[in-house]
Amino acid sequence: MFLLRLLFKNAFRHRLRSWLTILSIAIAILAFGLLRTVVDGFYSGVKNASVNRLVTRNAISMTFPMPASYETRIKQVPGVREVSAMNWFGGIYIDEKHFFANFAVEPQNFVNLYPEYIYPSDQLKNFLRDRKGAAVGRKLAERFGWKLGEPIVLKGTIHPGNWEFVIRMIYTTRDESGDERLFFFHWDYLNETLRRTAPGRADHAGAFIVGIDRGDLAPSIAAEIDRTFANSMAETLTETEKAFNLNFIAMAGSIITIVRLVALVVIIIIIAVAANTMSMTSRERIGEYAVLKTLGFGGWRIGTLIFGESLVISLSGAAIGILATFPAAQAFRHFLGSIFPAFIVSHQTIVYDAVSGAIVGVLAAIVPTWRSIQIRIADGLRRIG
To answer: Where are the beta strands (DSSP E) in the chain?
Structure first.
């Protein structure tokens, strides 16, 4: 207890310098935590992926469609319990700035495949009955102020024209990290319209969402589906939902790498700031350390004082930074909710913040400690007076 009190008194002997250093560390830890949360936001879809869902797509690329008739043959594969055709629609609401994911699905099959989506039963009935009905996530509805029964129009990019929809269902998710920004509608509405306007593009699906009985059978079921369509005009690639989502994240791989590098640079900079503070402190106390050596204190005791003081400052800054991360993340969630399905500070991020604070304290004290231990008693005593 006495040592702890001594460390705190030494750490705040020069209050202005100490508090400025603590503030710098707090800001750095806050930035590091938010950047880590941004990276976690990219991977939220991977974390929420179900082991009981597979995605079948064209083996060449997702941009190449497959015949809709594949659905019947996929259902015949042992272990498959549900299948829904899916087409990325790529519609625009008002203008390009209002981007959100929208796609056509087979509604009843789709809701069966995603039990994590929660919605009132009467809304589901209305959605299933209305061929132009659309289901939207709560966050998406709040973003645009959409209400149940409200008609909206999306401008088609892949499928030109103005497409009319009516909001029939607003869903939420079981977990806070679930994606509530999606817009999906009837695959039949898209397909029947294409039969009239572009017959060559009708009766095709961009992907099939496949529900399976047991997650441990996913590799064998995926292989069997792909064997079913081997040597066909549109061979397939079936993968787990997690692997499918990772492929999308890979497209943003450079952005994620840059974010991680920035987080690393932030920590390196703050190590330099903390090291400068500890170097100034140790230079000012060379005389005191010489007196301690004269009294018989060994180098490890002096090192304990320097390392302890450095840790008090760095961990104090880390604690403030961690506490500030939660309200900051709440503010970011408000502004970036349309970009990330979730912006939640994870327990792992808090651990990384705390460990980073400790690393800063340890590394910042190494050089000052070595210099203080190496100085001779006579040289240290000359600085007194």
So the answer is: 53-58, 66-67, 80-88, 102-105, 117-118, 133-137, 151-156, 161-173, 183-186, 204-205, 207-212, 236-240
Q: Which residue carries 């019947």 as its tokens?
A: 72
Q: What is the DSSP string of 30-71?
A: HHHHHHHHHHHHHTHHHHT--TTEEEEEESS-TTS-EETTHH
Q: Provide the token pair at 188.
A: 């039949």
Half-sphere exposure of 377 (CA within 13 A, CB side): 9
In the structure, how many helices (H) and strands (E) does the chain have? 15, 12
Residue with tokens 């880390």: 318
Alpha carbon distance 101, 95 (integer Å): 14
What would the two tokens of residue 91 be?
A: 């519609």
Whether 266 and 317 have beta carbons less than 8 Å apart is answered as: no
Q: What is the DSSP letter of 137?
A: E
223-271 pLDDT, tens digit each: 999 999 998 888 999 998 888 877 766 655 667 777 778 878 887 888 7
> CA–CA separation, 281 vs 270, rounded Å?
17
Contact 262, 254 (CB under 8 A): no
Please check whether residue 28 is in contact with residue 187, taking contact to mean a CB–CB distance below 8 angstroms.
no
Q: Which residue in 220, 215, 196, 236 sits closest to 69, CA to CA?
A: 236
Q: How far is CA 363 from CA 89, 187, 231, 288, in A?
A: 52, 59, 60, 22
Return the closest-CA partner of residue 136 out of 98, 96, 182, 90: 182
In one letter, which amino acid is 321?
G
Write out pLDDT tens, residues 89-118: 988 898 877 788 899 999 999 999 999 899
Task: From residue 114, give the alpha-carbon distance in Å to each of 95, 126, 221.
Answer: 30, 18, 19
